[in-house]
Each structure stands twice: as C-alpha cells, then as structure tokens.
Amino acid sequence: MKSDGIAVIPVVTIDGPSGAGKGTVASLVADAKGWHLLDSGALYRIIAVAGLAKGIDLADEASLVALSEQLDIVFADGKVTVDGADLTDGIRTEEAGNSASQVAALPPVRGAILTLQQSFRKAPGLVADGRDMGTVVFPDAPVKVFLDASAEARAERRYNQLKNKGLGVNLRALLEQIQERDARDRNRAVAPLKPAEDALIIDSTHMSIDEVVATVIAQLSIK
Ligand code: C5P
Description:
Layout: E1 11-15, H1 22-33, E2 36-39, H2 40-53, H3 61-70, E3 73-76, E4 79-82, E5 85-86, H4 94-104, H5 107-112, H6 114-118, E6 126-130, H7 133-137, E7 143-148, H8 151-164, H9 171-187, E8 200-203, H10 209-222
Helix pairs in contact: 1-10, 2-3, 2-4, 4-9, 8-9
Bound molecules: cytidine-5'-monophosphate.
C-alpha cells in the first residue's frame, strides 16, 4: 500500500454478476468492520431511473452525463434519496436493473461518475460492490473478491426474493433477463465484467451468505 493520503485507506472490492449476493455480502462485511459502503450499481440505476423520468433516451450520452453531474444523491439510513425524492424501492425493479445496464455500457457515463465513486473511500475503510471496483475504480485495493454463482442459482435466489415479497414472477423469464444482463455486462467495450488479475474468485453457488462473508473477512486478516 502507498503511504500517501487517501491510498492508505483500505478497500475491499466485491465484483461479480447480478444476483451473486454481492450487495448482501458487501453490507455484512461493512457492518462487521464498521466501514463505509459503496453500492456502485445503485448509481447506474439512479441515472437510468432519473433519466427515464426526465424523458431522456437511454442512448443519449450527453444528456445522461449532464444529468449525472447535476443529481443530488444521498445514501443514508438504508434509504436512497435523489433530488429530495425517495428512490429506495424505485431503483430496485428488474426494469431499473436492465436500464442501468444500458446506461452503464456508455463510456462517458462511466467516466462521469468515477470521481464520485472514489470519494466514498473514507477512513476507516470501504467495501465497494459492483462490476469494475477491483479493475477500474479501486485498482490498488488490498482485497479484491469476484463473487460468482451459476446463472440458474442466481435466477432462483431472485425468484425466491420476489416471491417472498408477494410478487408474481416467472423463473424462466428471470433466468433470461439475468443471462441477457450478464452478456451485456461481460461483452461491453469499457470496464467489462471480469475478475481483476489479483482477485480471489468465490463461487457461491453452493455456499451460504455467512460462509461467503467469513471467507471475505478472512482475506482481510491475511493482507
Ligand atoms: O449491481 P446492480 O445490479 O445494482 O447493477 C445494475 C447494473 O449496473 C449492472 O447490470 C451493470 O450493468 C451496471 N454496473 C456497472 N458497474 C458497476 C456496477 C453496476 O456497470 N460497478
């Protein structure tokens, strides 16, 4: 680790495909360590949802960049507030996830929120969850994890989550959406979803959340 200013603040990056459990694991590791949390996917979701609400086409890079620079985004007490409006649930739908993945494929939009993401690195430490946390946003992070699981396991987990919320869902449609989003995230030109060279790859298909959290925390004590 470098000895100057910001670089000494430790970061754990948790990257991986949708539905692998990154969000839950990241938030449990952050709680256990008393560290800050960056849910970078929420930023892409916010830009997509706010853009659509303003009638912006999701391929209109210039308008999306301008929007991302103007939005007043606050993460506090488990809530996401954007320009004063509560978007906590509004950004969590499958549609918002798919729209986020379209917006996230645009290099200027990724560039526009790079500094914002890096500003979450504050003492005593940060747990950052996303697709390119270890490869692009925090390449010097001492602990990098790539959390994977089979597409089928991820679709089934999402199916159970939505069913528990009383929402009618179709497992096959969910699997197709997950595969479509994976393909877009893995094949895009900029910051494609892939493990950092120095990442620990954890396949959570047959692991419980607690086992994954314990594995990540064990990495921290090794480094
Ligand atoms: O993680 P989440 O499902 O909330 O992310 C929504 C979408 O945002 C992803 O499918 C991906 O396209 C994009 N994303 C990204 N880079 C990140 C985080 C999310 O491209 N660091």
